[in-house]
Amino acid sequence: MNSLGERPGINTAWLVALVLTLAWGALAFGAVYPWAYRPLLLATAVCGFWGLLQAGGRIQWKLAAGLVAVFVAILLQLLPLRWQLLEAVSPAAQAVLMQYDLTYRLSVMSGAEVYHSLSVHPDQTEMALSFLVGLGLLVLGTASGLSRSGLRRLVVSVAVLGAALAVIGIVQKAVYTGRIYGFWMPLEGRNPFGPFVNRNHFAGWMLMALPLTMGHLLGLLSHTLPRHRLSLRERFVWLSTPGGSKLVLVSFAVVAMGLSLVLTLSRSGVGAFALALVVTMAMIARGRPSQTRRPVRLAYVAGLVATIVSWAGIDGVAARFAQTDSASISGRVEIWRDTLSMLRDFLWTGTGLGTFSTANLFYQQAIPDKYVSAVHNDWLQLAAEGGVLVGLPILVLLVMLVREMRLRFAEHARRGDFGVTYWTRVGAVTGLLAIGVQEVVEFSLQMPGNAVLFAVLCAIAVAPAGMRRRSSASLSSTSSSVG
User: Which residues partner with 82 through β-bridges?
Assistant: First the structure.
């Protein structure tokens, strides 16, 4: 144990567990099946609690209080109420239950003393709550337990995982025979990409991992590039150094992930990625005048984007965006209209978190020949399921997260710290913005594997700017490997 009380072996084991959790969530088909998401749920809780134990009391209690407020609101949705009180508090819930639950209906009509929660399907809400508890622990534990060296190792691991997923997706697209990994037939949907059963959800994972990796790359450009001009021979020699090798590795990951995202031809994914690029370029351009590497960063990002676009082929992407998929657009609009009707009826209490698929049985008018189990707009679905009861605490938590992010950037500015950690945080925030934009027309974050990566990005975005450092002896022994 060093002078700061950090035990490198335990820290490394925790990071390995965290990376394995991320990998399982992505590689196990996005963890959409019970056999995949149940161990993932346990792993998120364990990693989160493990991170809190490493924090040494440096827990962000305000953020924890915001999460607890959300959990309490969801517990209120699960609180059993006598049917007369339920009818008074949420008439819409009573109406749905009288149609959906025959046992409940017969018991009420017989005059029995019947109790039911505000949630129209308590089991679904309990499952959603268990995920939120695990993800909340993961956010707090990761934000509190990360050291600067741990952050860099974590992001490089995400980059390697992202590159592996990208290669799987690109190869599978070329040789696809209707089965994921060559043997797994998706139970639902026939539009997979890589390990994900839906190309939009694969794009959602990349929308978070790609900006994070790109932000880390921008930090490495200022940290590792030589400060003086090199000859062509010296440049090749420099690429063999640890710093040069890491730069090449992360650059390859960015190109591979960007190429795979574009090849999904997911319009929501490519559009959100374009927005992420604009935000990234704007962050580079608004850097301090004294940042002499600003032109290098701009040129490097432009070169990577040009490589991605040239390999993917601009014609195919343009043709995809030129398609007028009126059925898809009108179908989403009709689903949103039905959901707004549900929201009006359940405005105050919501249908219960995770219960849209049940409540929509009695509201669906759109696409009558198909069962609609998701709104294709997670913001709207969250409002309908949570109502004011859950929506208000979530809004407060969102404001708290944004405030913490602003405080972290202010700390960087005050300390004059615009190195790798700063740019990694920029990447994390950009990834959160990108997935938030995609969620307006998709439901990628309902994939447990995507939700875990989302939680990790939130943790990176709000982690203290002055993350704990290793002792000088320990730091010097690892500087060559972490950059």
Answer: 115
Q: Is 329 exposed, middle or buried (0-12, 13-18, 19+ CB in 10 A)?
A: exposed
Tokens of residue 480, six digits: 């060559």
- Using a pLDDT cut of 90, give the percent of the chain over it: 64
What was the pLDDT predicted at 416?
84
Residue 198 φ then ψ, to 5°: -140, 130
Nearest to 165 by CA among 265, 280, 24, 316: 24
- What is the rounded radius of gyration, in angstroms, for the C-alpha atoms of the chain? 24
Whether residue 67 lies inside any domain: the answer is yes
Q: Is residue 102 part of a domain?
A: no
d(CA 392, CA 22): 30
Q: What is the pLDDT of residues 325-376, one digit of tens each?
A: 555 677 889 999 999 999 999 999 999 999 999 999 999 998 888 889 999 9
Report the Cα 430 to chain-centroid distance in Å: 11
Distance between start and end Cα atoms, the chain: 22
Q: Give the domain extent around 177.
A: 11-79+117-227+240-476
CB 424, CB 222: distance < 8 Å:
no
CB 350 within 8 A of CB 118: yes
What would the two tokens of residue 274 be? Answer: 């374009």
Q: DSSP string of 188-248? A: S-SB-BTTBSBHHHHHHHHHHHHHHHHHHHHHHHHHHS-SS---HHHHHHHHTSHHHHHHH
Amino acid at 44: T
233 lies in a domain? Answer: no
pTM value is: 0.90
CA 186, CA 178: separation in Å to the nearest integer? Answer: 9
The C-alpha atoms of residue 171 and residue 157 are separated, in whole angstroms, by 21
Residue 370 DSSP SS3: coil
- How does 350-370 read in b/e, with b if 16+ C-beta sit within 10 Å? bbbbbbbebbbeebbebeeee
C-beta separation of 356 from 381 below 8 A: yes
User: For the chain, how many structural domains are there in total?
Assistant: 1
367: left (phi over 0), alpha (psi -120 to 50) or beta: left
Q: Give the CA dihedral 456, 356, 358, 109, nearest 10 degrees.
A: 120
The residue assigned the tokens 């190195």 is: 419
Query: Helix and strand tally (H, E) in the chain?
Result: 20, 2
DSSP characters for 25-66? Answer: HHHTGGG-SHHHHHHHHHHHHHHHHHHHHHHTT---HHHHHH
Q: How far apart are CA 355 and CA 339, in angstroms?
A: 12
**Residue 205 maps to a domain:** yes
Alpha-carbon gap, residue 112 to 105, rounded angstroms: 10
